[in-house]
Amino acid sequence: MVDDAVLEQHVHAATSDAAPDEVTPPVSPGGSWTAARVGWLRDFHHGRRAGLDAPAGEATWAIVVDETVVGSVRLKHTDEPDLLETGIWLTRRVLGRGLGPAVMVAVLQQATVLGAARVRADTTAGNAAAPSVLRRLGFTLTVGKDGHDVQATVSLLPRAPREHQWTNLERDTVLSAGNRLQS
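User: That's the sequence. What structure does it adopt?
Assistant: C-alpha cells below.
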C-alpha cells in the first residue's frame, strides 16, 4: 500500500521533477500541474491501496532511491486473465541512470509471482527511451496505425536463456512490503 506519507512524497516528486503529461492523463487543459491533476494523482494512488484483487484491479508502488521517491510503477488486470498491464514514470533527475530497466525487471518478477503469463506496456514512439528498454527486456513492440502509439508485450513463460533476457539481468531492485520499490 502506498501510505499517506509515501503518497505525499510521491506527489512532491511528480510536481517538482516531472511533466504532468508523463504522470497523469490530461485531466485539465495545458501542460502544467493544476489542483485537478494533483487531486487525480492522489485519488489514483489512494484508490489502488487495496491491490490487484480490489475493485480497481490495479496496484501501484513508489520507486525509492536513497530514501527518496523518484517515480511510480503499476500493475493492472486486463480483460485477458493471464495478461497484466504495467506503466512507469520517473523524475527527470534519475533518467538515464539505468533505473527504468531495473524497475521493469522487478515488475516482471512481481507479475510472475502473481501468476501472469504476459505483461503489456503501452507507450508512444516519441518516448524514445521506453521502447528501447522494453525491446532489451524481450518485449515485442507493435506500432499502431497512427505511427504514434506503441504496444509492447512480453511472455513470462519459461524461455531458453539468451542475452538481454529480463530474467538474466542482475539488479538489486526489489518490490518490498509497503509498496515501495527500492534500488
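Residues 4-182 form a domain with the Aminopeptidase fold (CATH 3.40.630.30).
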